[in-house]
Specification:
Layout lengths: L2 E8 L5 E8 L8 E5 L7 H12 L3 E5 L14 H12 L9 H8 L4 H16 L7 H13 L9 E6 L1 H12 L5 E5 L6 H4 L6 E6 L3 H16 L4 E6 L16 H18 L2
Parallel strand pairs: 3-4, 3-5, 5-6, 6-7, 7-8
Antiparallel strand pairs: 1-2, 2-4
Helix pairs in contact: 2-4
Length: 271
């Protein structure tokens, strides 16, 4: 299997950047899947997921939410984000959003590294507003549907992880032409936005991801009351980010089974 990979500029002023992958020997347009990043950007994991979906026969595309006009703000440069991710990976999951425990660990870092990591974490954990990224992903869907030669005229679906999971749900509420949306452990759309969802939604959650699990019944009820299509699965003993095989939270069984269900769902909705 040979893949073609490329970074592409898109948007009304070519202001956005995304990573695309597709089967190199298929010349006709293929259905497209938007792969929406975690807070770590379009890192090695998101690029790997994009390639996996390309290998399954889709034009796969990962918008770089942190890039504008070809550059990243200093705290969100890939090498800075990678440094912050490595720091968090060294902590127990419960400490990731606990400022006291996190600061105790930060104080053990060399002073210069501590300042860089603290600044980046401040943006990633407290300064990201999903509404700021909606224009980017809506533009990505339109680009794939209407302009990109390898998906033009074909259906578009979205799959997102954590931050991207929330955005996948928001895209479903903003793009009436979206064929389906998949939420991997992301915040649910509000009831107001659920009212405008026009496609089937699939959700995957880890049993130990208490914050999202506590809110899941409300999401299910809101979707039911709005007469929207929602299929969801909760995986036993799995944490948040269970699909990310570069992190300590990775759960092999949950990842494997959810990926099988993901491919089946995409096959059904992107016919």
């Amino acid at each position: 299997m040979t893949l073609h990979e490329e970074w592409i500029r898109y948007g009304s002023k070519n202001e956005f950047t995304g990573y695309a992958a597709r089967l190199a020997n298929v010349k006709e347009p293929m259905p497209a899947v938007i792969v929406i990043q975690e807070i770590w950007g379009v890192d090695d994991h998101i690029q790997d997921v994009t390639r996996r979906l390309a290998g399954a026969g889709y034009t796969a595309f990962a918008p770089d939410l942190f890039s504008l006009d070809g550059s990243h703000p200093d705290p969100l440069r890939p090498e800075r984000v990678e440094l912050a991710k490595s720091f968090l990976n060294s902590l127990p999951p419960a400490a990731w959003r606990n400022p006291v425990e996190r600061d105790e660990a930060l104080n053990l870092l060399p002073p210069e590294e501590r300042l860089l990591v603290a600044e980046t974490l401040g943006v990633l954990l407290g300064g990201l507003n999903t509404d700021n990224f909606i224009g980017n992903i809506v533009a990505a869907a339109a680009f794939l549907r209407n302009e990109y030669a390898y998906s033009k005229g074909q259906g578009v679906a979205s799959v997102g992880f954590c931050l991207g999971g929330a955005l996948s749900g928001l895209l479903a509420s903003q793009d009436p032409q979206l064929k389906s949306a998949v939420i991997y452990y992301g915040n649910a759309p509000s009831a107001e936005r659920i009212a405008t969802i026009a496609c089937p939604v699939l959700g995957f959650y880890g049993e130990l991801d208490k914050r999202l699990i506590d809110g899941l019944p409300s999401f299910v009820e809101n979707m039911k009351e709005a007469d929207k299509s929602l299929e969801y699965y909760v995986y036993p003993n799995a944490q948040h980010a269970f699909f990310n095989d570069t992190r300590p939270s990775y759960h092999n069984a949950a990842s494997r089974i959810s990926y099988t269900r993901l491919l089946s769902f995409l096959n059904e909705t992107l016919q």
